[in-house]
Amino acid sequence: LSVKKKYIVSAIVPLHNSGNYIEETIQGILHQSIPFDEIIMIDGASTDNTVAIVKKYKKIKLIALKQDPERIAKRNIAWRASKGNIIAFIDSDLILVKDWLKEVLKGFDQGHVAVVDRRAVYQPKTYIAKMNDHFFDLRFTDRYKPFTAWVVQRDVLEKIGGLDESAIGFEDINLGNAIYAAGYDIYFAQKAIAYHKGEPTNFKTEMRRHFWFGSHALPYWKTRKPRGKQLKVALFSFLTALFFFQPFSALGLSFLLYLYVFYKDIFYWKMKLKYLFVHPFIAVASEYAYAWGVVYSFIKGPMTHARSSDAAVAKNVRTQ
Predict the structure, then answer these.
(1) DSSP state of 12
(2) Which end of the chain is more exposed for a tag (fewer CB within 10 A), N or C?
(3) How buried is 187 (Cβ within 10 angstroms: 0-12 exposed, 13-18 middle, 19+ buried)?
């Protein structure tokens, strides 16, 4: 059987006020070396020109909602309305390389039921953006062990009940957990590169992003057992709160964490010298931002603004 006949692939893209950047995403999806069989974009009551842009493309099926549910809910609505036996969840701020789907399907050819692609920073221009992109280059190698998934067989999605709509901000990790818990594994498509427009471009956006994730961690932890990294972050959050009124202890802890990251950057990651002294500082500060996001959610609940896609990304793109 040819790849086209063996797989029916549905691309699922959630939207909301994505007019400033969705056209480039559409072009990346449409111009694949192996085309998608179905492209579904689901819009949550956009007030800009998002719907008008999507309607220009006859190959795209548009689901227009009268309200704007969280994007996990949009994904669930769209994939259940799709016809594919392979479901590819694609964010509205991703630019796919031409062979993205071709590389993803190699994982299914090898018998895997789920695939995660390789992310990169879209046109990095600032120091922070270039540092993050460099870290992606060091991280996403042959030794990378996937713990998330974005492309999944339909029957597996049906078996695990779809995406958990309570895992806001952690939907990819939660999906990976469910896939492993069901006895499957995940394939890392190293050459399936997706350039992400929503990556932080400065210190402020870096901290705000981690704070947002921290503010949504508790609902996820309440419904899912923390695995590995999540458990460590939970412990770090506790230690941060413990040392809040003990600045010298907090300073000592920060210094030890800096040395730990610095050691890994030298001997494990082999990071470039121009990022070597700054990256550990950003990493430790990010963990503190995450931890205080957890504390914030105790007091006021999760932050309500968009994480990276939608309106926040449009602002990021204009400032690059």
Answers:
(1) E
(2) N
(3) buried
Q: What is the mean pLDDT of the chain?
A: 88
- On whether the CB atoms of residues 122 and 199 are closer than 8 A, the answer is yes
What letter represents residue 121's amino acid?
A: V
Separation of alpha carbons 139 and 144, rounded Å: 7
For the chain, give the number of residues: 320
d(CA 63, CA 43) in angstroms, rounded, equals 6
Rg value, the chain, Cα = 20
Find the helix or strand (DSSP H, E) in which 152 lies: strand 151-153
What are the tens digits of pLDDT across the range 1-19?
344 458 999 999 999 999 9
| Residue 310 confidence (pLDDT) | 39
Question: C-alpha angle 105/108/109, rounded to 5°?
Answer: 85
Measured in degrees and rounded to the nearest 5, phi and psi for residue 61 equal -90, 125
The pair of three-digit structure tokens given for residue 94, joined into one six-digit string:
């991703």
In 34-170, DSSP assigns E strands to 38-44, 60-65, 86-89, 94-96, 114-121, 151-153
Q: What is the pLDDT of residue 218?
A: 79
Please give the helix or strand (H or E) that residue 208 lies within, else none.
helix 203-215
Write the pLDDT tens digit of every residue in 254-267: 888 899 999 999 99
CB of 216 within 8 A of CB of 297? yes
Q: Are 130 and 138 in contact (CB under 8 A)?
A: no
Q: Which residues of 282-295 are buried (b: 16+ CB within 10 A; e: fewer)?
A: bbbbbbbbbbbbbe
Its sign, for the CA torsion 81, 62, 172, 235, is: negative
Q: Write the pLDDT tens digit of every residue in 134-173.
A: 999 999 999 999 999 999 999 999 999 999 998 899 999 9
Looking at per-residue confidence, does 105 or 226 come out higher?
105
Q: Which residues contact 284 (CB under 8 A, 6 or more apart)?
A: 254, 257, 258, 261
Alpha-carbon torsion 139, 115, 5, 24, what sign? negative
